[in-house]
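Feature request, filed as a ticket because there's no other form

It would be nice if the structure record came with a short human-readable summary line next to the tokens. Right now we just get the raw output. Example of a typical job, pasted below so the devs can see what we mean:
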Amino acid sequence: MAEYLFIVPGYSDEDFSFLPLRNLLVAEGLYDSDKIQSIEYASLDDQVGFRDFGHKLDDVYNQFEREHPGARIDVLAHSTGSLVVRAWLYMRRTRQVITGQDLDLPVDHLFLFAPANFGSDLAKIGRSGLNAVRVTFAKMDKNFTLKGNQDPFETGKRVLDGLEPASPLQWELSTGDLHTQTYFGEHDPTGMSTFPFIFAAGTAHKSLESLIVKELQKDGTDSTVRIAGTSLNTRLFTLRSKAVIEDRSQLSVQVDDELLPGGGRRKFGDIAFGIFGNYDHCGIINENGLLKKPTDPNKAKTWNPKLPTTWEPLGLLKKAKQVSTAEEYLNLAKEFSEITNSYILPKVDIDEEGIFQQFFFNVTDDTGQSVNDFFIQFFVFDNNSQAYDDYLSAQFRDLFGANTSFQFHSVDNSYGVLMLDITRVQQFLNQLGMNHQVRLKVTAKSAYNGVSFPNSEFTIYESTSALGTGAKVSFFYPFTTTLVKVILDRYVEDAILSQGRFAPGS
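Raw output as currently delivered:
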């Protein structure tokens, strides 16, 4: 069991914010004070990004390993810090695989608080000129000490690009560390596991600023990150179409079942995830701002508070610290689920809203080139009449609510995220008549003359399986992110290229 803890703050934050939490962990006997280290990174520097942070964190860990041979560490990360840690682990494993080094797994327990695993809606605001001025004034404060963050009018452009929802970085990390060479399972080649625990915040912070900035008012968020985007219980679907699709057999939907050739799963079937409804994004690591940092540097030198033992995540955190086997982990994951269920239950009434899921799309053609202009629609299809049911289709789309939005990444439009309020969707699906399907239609346009893509429809839910067993295929999982890789065959018109016969005008 790891004796050392690394604490990784979020965007533009510093380790000083975690002093109350650090002191509580020491007081509760989870770690010795001299075995807790902090990690600060230049999140406000326009020239660096998550891969740079991951690389330097690897250097820090390598130095730690030289001083403590064979020792593993626990990591506690907040918000954007989760992407820093995951980038480090993913890059470390990738480098070891490419160079043929022995694989290792440095992290024992990974505690993620309100993690920005799938970004934040505030990232676009962070790139604004107004924020650049605000941050510049903050940097002029004599208490501002973060290394590498001193340049005026810089807000961390590359960091914010990666932090924006539907970023290519998030796609690379998630298809890598959750669906390729994951270390979040009991079958890692090292024989070890990293045990991840998600402590999500479940309420939005109400403030004067939240009344002005609409992104701070979004349902389904903790004012900063999307709650559904904190979970690591992702699913990965690949939707594949052919250029000629009169025959629906040319359309395929494949799901990554995460099963390994020799048996077992690539990642834990249930990654521990609990939503703590009484906390907002920053409050979950400081009892909703109970302990304010002193602004007076003289007072800061003697400020040494600790969180109260009534801090709700403490009980599960203490249990998580003791986990050493996959069986213990999966049993504790059930207790995390109970926390989430207590958050969800008041929202299950048909007239309520607030149970969300997001779909994270990446659309390419069959040569791997990005498709930057695409549109997503949902339809209900009646297998008996072999036609759309227009009434049910409209009814289904109306269930998503006013908070439904599709957001393209501002740098690469082949990536997009759709967040749905699916509180009433499951009830609709359960009442759907026999032999109905829900189909997802992808309409795409090429930027080049003579190149086109077929309109493709994929079945993402069926009320009765083809085998007649009653088993259901579904894309819908509350408070998760579903990764959807869409691959479209490109069709090129004959006029683009033709065979000649060396004849005039051929």
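Something like this underneath would help us a lot:
Residues 346 and 352 are 8 Å apart (CA to CA).
Confidence is low (pLDDT under 50) at residues 208-212, 465-471.
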